[in-house]
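In this supplementary section we document a worked example of the pipeline. Step one takes a protein sequence of length 473 as its only input; no multiple sequence alignment statistics are reported here. Step two produces a three-dimensional model, which step three serialises into structure tokens for compact storage. The input and output of this example are shown verbatim.
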Amino acid sequence: MRKRLFIYITVMIAAGLVSFFLLSASVIYTNNINLSKDTIMETAKICAGLYNDDTDISAFVQAGNNTRITIIASDGTVIADSRPLDLSAAETHLNRPEIQAALNGSPAVYRRYSDSLGVYFIYYALKVETNSGYVFIRTAIPVANIETYFHQSLPLLMFLLIAVGLLCFAFTHGMIVRITKPFSSVEYKLRLLANGEYISEPIAGSYEEINKITREIDEIALILQNSFDSLRDEKEKNVTESRENAKRREEFFANASHELKTPLTAIKGFNELTAINNKDENISKYIDSITRETDRMLTLIGDMLKLSELESAQEINPVPVSLAAVVNEVSDTMSTAINEKSIIFETFGDDCMVTAEQGHIYELVKNLIENAVRYNNHGGRVLVVIESDKNLVRLTVADNGISIPHEEQARIFERFYRVEKSRSQRSGGTGLGLSIVKHICALYGWKVSLKSKPGVGTEITVLFENNKERVTE
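The serialised model returned by step three reads:
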């Protein structure tokens, strides 16, 4: 803030001083011009009052010192001039603007180039009546003389400009330091406040208005610190309760799953006995419905138990597992479902080992391939690729089935979340498959990512870090 404020004010002062310098130079130059005009006009009037037929014109024209005096006859012929001039070669001056103005009774000052002397002059002429007629008395000053006076005054003007500029910059720097110093203290205290280390010390400034602002900031900071302390205490109490509640939910989740599994297994057994002994075709559809829903519930409970085990897992016993062997095992298990939908199932890549529990690898691969098959179109394609690179093993499962909308991709790994709920229910999905994949990856520190594009399909990649081990024969 201090630097920006100093630069801003410095630029403003510099612009003001330069503008003042240019304006002053212009005023001085204009004043010199006006003073010169007044000089030649006053000299012309004096000369006009003293001139008569008996005047010694040679001495008369030399009386003007630095002012050029010229006497011109009524026909425009130069009678005498204070400057060295070949009068016989001089052309008529009757057409000169200052002479024409004097002849018309409205004398005026003109700035023009002198053909006879080759320099710029400012001219003024008066018509003077004599016994033998009239003549013109013209006075002039070289413009170069005026500019010389102006240039002589510039060094003093520039010196004043530099001196005033340095004083302004020194004053500005001191003023900015005095203004911003209290705010630096406020910034320091607010930074401490953000870290929970508030200190109550008065902040003294140089101006009452700033002191008032800093006092109010200090009061607000104290209120915020008290609020932060209260929130921290409350948060610690909420976190404790949240952990206890989460633990109770996990216990209920696991216990309820176990309790539900037993009666559902019994229902399935009784339903199978009923199916064996049933002779009524009208009842068969109800038996099939009970079988289907019981299987779905048992699958759901099984997935819930797996999730519960993953969440509560404290010890794992990893062993080297062939990823390609697990993929082949899963594809064999799902061959019926793959054939029913005429899915083209392909596997490519290296035969690599990953270190994990056999069951966890199987569940991860099974859920990825099940999703790729379940949510694929009839006659679709599923591609499984295993790659290895240094200490990394990468498993990619891609399909060309239904895609996942971009706005729903962030939630696809949540438990019980389905993109198309009706289709998931028809295909037997529980909404827990990808949640199980996510929990397994979290347990081992692996990374899982998803890509999905409408009209192309979905691709899920698991990156097994620090697990590379190629199988050799």
